[in-house]
Amino acid sequence: MENKNANKPEIRSDAKKLVLDNAAIEADLLRPGRSWFYQLVLGLFTVITKLLFFVRVEGEENLPEGACIIMGNHRAWLDPILLAMGARDREIRFMGKKELWGNKVFAWIAAQVRGIPVDRGNADMASIRMSMTVLKAGHTMGIFPEGTRSKGDAMLPLQGGAAMIALRSKAPVVPIYIDGDYSLFRRVTVRVGKPVEMDDLLAGRVTKESCEELTKRITASFAKLSGGRSLPPAGNTESVQ
After folding, report:
1. All domains of the chain, ordered by start, with CATH?
2. What is the pLDDT of residues 110-159, one digit of tens each?
C-alpha cells in the first residue's frame, strides 16, 4: 500500500516550541524595578560558590557607569553566576541559545532574569533588536562571545556578532575572565577588565572590517586578563582570529 505521507516533509516535534513571543520577551527585558528572582539566585549561589570554590572578584572598579556589554569566557553552567558576581550592583540581561526557551521551566526562569534568546548560526534580527533596546534603555547585557562552551583555559574563536552589537549600540565592552576549573576547594578568580578601546572604531561606519578589528581587541583583552592562557596553544591555527 502506498504511504501517502511518504513525500511529506518531516516536521520536527520541537519546532513549534522554538516560535517565541518576542513581544512578551522584550516587555520582560524592560520591566521596571529589580528582579527578586535574580537577586535570590545571585545571593544563594554567591554563598555556595565562595564556600566551594573560594571565588574572588578583582577589578570591579573597571565597570563603567550606565549601559555596557559584559563579555565572558564560557566553560561551565555556573559562568553566568560568576559574571553576575563580578557586577553585583547591576542586573545583567544574558543572551542564551534560543533552544533553551523550548523548555517551560527554563522559559519561566529566563523571563524572571530577563534573558535574551539568540538563534545561533543565523542572522537573528529579533535578538539584535532586543539587545539594542536593552542597551539603549541603560541596562547591562551579558554575552559569551565564543558561542558555546570551551574546554580548558584557551577560548574558542570569538563570534563577530558580539562586536557588531557593541559598535551599533556604542556601548562599552567589558571583558571578564573566569580563571579556574571549578575544582572543589580551589580558587576561582573573576577578573574584570577595563573597557576595550573602541573610540576610533565608533568614529566610522560599522563594517565587517571594524567588527573584525574590535573582535581582535576583545581577544587581546582576554589574553591580558588570563596571562595569555585564553589564546590557543602555539601551532594551533584553527582557533586564531
Report:
1. 19-226 (3.40.1130.10)
2. 999 999 999 876 767 889 999 999 999 999 999 999 988 998 899 999 99
DSSP conformational letter for 99: G
- Calculate the alpha carbon distances from 95 to 41, 91, 124, 148, 235 in Å: 17, 13, 12, 12, 32
Sorted by sequence, the CB contacts under 8 Å of residue 239 that are 6+ apart come out as 154, 155, 156, 157, 232
The residue behind cell 566551594 is: 52
- Provide the H-helix boundaries in the chain: 22-29, 36-53, 79-85, 104-113, 125-136, 160-169, 199-202, 208-226
C-alpha 61 chain-centroid distance: 20
d(CA 60, CA 117): 27
End-to-end CA distance of the chain: 56
Q: Kindly report whether the global pTM for this prediction surpasses the value 0.90.
A: no
The answer to whether residues 134 and 93 touch, using CB atoms and an 8 Å cutoff, is yes
